[in-house]
TrEMBL record:
Signal peptide bounds: 1-21
Ion transport keyword on record: no
Keywords associated with the record: Signal
Domain Outer membrane protein beta-barrel: 8-225
Organism of provenance: Sphingomonas ginkgonis
Stretch list, region Disordered: 230-284
GO CC field: actin filament
Pfam families recorded: OMP_b-brl
Lineage per the UniProt record: Bacteria, Pseudomonadati, Pseudomonadota, Alphaproteobacteria, Sphingomonadales
Residue ranges with Pro residues bias: 230-248, 266-284
Protein name: Porin family protein
PANTHER family (alphabetical): PROTEIN DIAPHANOUS
Cited InterPro entries: Beta-barrel_OMP (IPR027385), Formin_Homology_Diaphanous_sf (IPR051412), OMP/PagP_B-barrel (IPR011250)
Gene Ontology biological process: actin filament polymerization
Length: 284
């Protein structure tokens, strides 16, 4: 449900307006926001015994997730590297490690990671841009002073590092020629980590094993280098030529000349006079 709500927020949070194209440009960014750490179910083992889910850790919500990143936009794909820091405070502890009861806890878990990400850009280049992707890298998780509240013991205090991976979904919206703001969802998970001497005593050092998993919703600010301004709109097409004048109505005059109907044909010449009558002869 958390993932569905985060993706819905990405889809509805940003408007669409024309902007600058980001293709073929490098970028750097900073991100920060809320971390929802999944409950941990740590398997505990000593030299002689193993207790599945011997320590269950419930974290307060929200925690903190911060990262710095830099990458290059190839057009359809973006490749980036990312350095991240995650912090979650303990809320409750339960399991065999605390007498099979549920108790308020203290302490925290922090994770430092270095990841490489590959994302696919969805949507047009001239406005809000959506991306889906995944990343892989290395993470170090540290459990710090995890113990029941009020306990005088130092608590679980150990670290381990190993492979980590993540899934990403984000939306970015340009606010200036080179600056974007964005909203990003992240699911993060480490491999199964081993915390040696988690509860170290003289007779029975205890080892814990579990993964760190979290959901994050982050606000991002991204600066783009070498951004090409949008091409100016093409000039308007030339006006169409005026229509040809309508054809002139004509008339044919008696002499064969052709004149506009508005002109007056020349008058025909008067008819020739009749011939004179023949002379008459006198009779004698």
């Amino acid at each position: 449900m958390t993932r569905k709500l985060a993706l819905l927020a990405l889809a509805t949070s940003l408007p669409f307006t024309p902007a600058y194209a980001r293709d073929n440009s490098a970028y750097v960014g900073v991100e920060g926001g809320a971390l929802l750490a999944r409950n941990q179910h740590v398997d505990l083992s000593t030299a002689t015994t193993t207790t599945p889910n011997g320590l269950n850790v419930r974290y307060k919500k929200p925690g903190l997730d911060l990262d710095l990143k830099g990458g290059y936009d190839f057009g359809l794909f973006r490749a980036e590297i990312e350095g991240g820091y995650k912090y979650a405070s303990v809320d409750e502890l339960s399991g065999a490690a605390v007498g099979n009861t549920t108790r308020d806890g203290r302490g925290h878990t922090s994770v430092v990671s270095g990841m490489g990400n590959l994302l696919v850009d969805l949507g047009p280049d001239d406005g809000a841009n959506f991306s889906l992707g995944a990343g892989a890298g290395w993470a170090r998780a540290k459990l710090s002073h995890i113990a029941p509240s009020g306990s005088t013991a130092s608590g679980a205090d150990e670290r381990d590092s190993g492979f980590a991976w993540q899934l990403l979904a984000e939306a970015r919206y340009p606010v200036t020629a080179q600056m974007d703001v964005g909203l990003k969802y992240r699911y993060f998970q480490t491999r199964r980590l081993r915390f040696d001497n988690l509860f170290n005593t003289a007779t029975a050092p205890t080892t814990g094993r579990d993964r760190f998993r979290s959901h994050s919703l982050l606000l991002s600010f991204v600066y783009n280098f070498n951004v090409a301004e949008p091409a100016p709109p093409p000039p308007p097409p030339p006006p169409p030529p005026p229509p040809p004048p309508p054809p002139v109505e004509t008339q044919t005059c008696f002499d064969g000349s052709v004149l506009p109907v508005t002109a007056v044909c020349p008058s025909p010449p008067p008819p020739p006079p009749p011939p004179p009558p023949p002379p008459t002869q006198e009779r004698g």
